[in-house]
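Structure tokens please, single chain.
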Amino acid sequence: MEYKKILVSQPKPTSEKSPYFDIAEKYGVEIVFRPFIKVEGLSAKDFRHQKVNISDFTAVVFTARGAIDHFFRLCEEMRINIPVTMKYFCKSEAIANYLQKYIVYRKRKIFASATGKLVDLLPAMQKHKTEKFLLVVSDVNNGSELSLLTENKLDVTSAVMYRTVSNDFTPDEKVDYDMLVFFSPQGIEALTKNFPDFKQGDVAIAAFGPATIESVREAGLRLDIEAPTPEAPSMPTAIDNFLAKATGK
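Here you go.
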């Protein structure tokens, strides 16, 4: 099987140093970046149905940059003034740095996990265990993050502020690729929704993460590439390994 055209179901990288571009050059393949899903923010009306009053909380927990965008958007739409005493707890330093888009960073109390893991944010949160925490999540969260925090005796309430929906294809778009790369179960759902007659044949399918891998199998598709693994901690590495074996390079 010759692999000439690969679809990566994510937005195109903003950096020219992306390993995907190295793969394209190394193997002479065309890589198309086409998200199968997109994120939409909840309206203020929909958010109010959860009966969560943002003003009741003294700290916010962010696990994604998108969560920050939708938190501040909803606060603005609902005319909620965020006090300068609000504390921010972030799953990673990159997420914490993103807060600068909305607040004066040096004048706020901001805490971040150095590892990018929520469990490693717990020590900082437990030092402030008297706070009332608001965990901003999407509609596809499985509740594991909330469980981790509440199991450690923290006063945490989760609130859905954005949802993941299918990024529908136009009638003239085709799945004429030699490899499809997925990063979420919603991506698999979007494939089957937009192309109900899709036949895999020789098309290689790559999946990142246990939930995505399981969704590939539940859809009756063949899984050819998976990540992360000890040999391939990232998707670009997994694709590189696969193509190296397929081409002998």
